[in-house]
Amino acid sequence: MCATCGCSVSAVSAVSAGHSHDHPHGSPHAHDHREGTRTLTLEQRVLAKNDALAERNRGWLAARGVRAVNVMSSPGSGKTTLLERTVSALAGRLPVAVVEGDQETSADADRIARAGAPVVQINTGSGCHLDAAMFESALRSLDPHEGIVIVENVGNLVCPALFDLGEGGRVVIMSVTEGADKPLKYPHMFRTADLVVLNKLDLLPYVEFDVEGFERDVALVNPGARTVQLSATRGDGIEAWYDWLDRPGG
Question: SS3 for 128?
Answer without folding.
Answer: coil
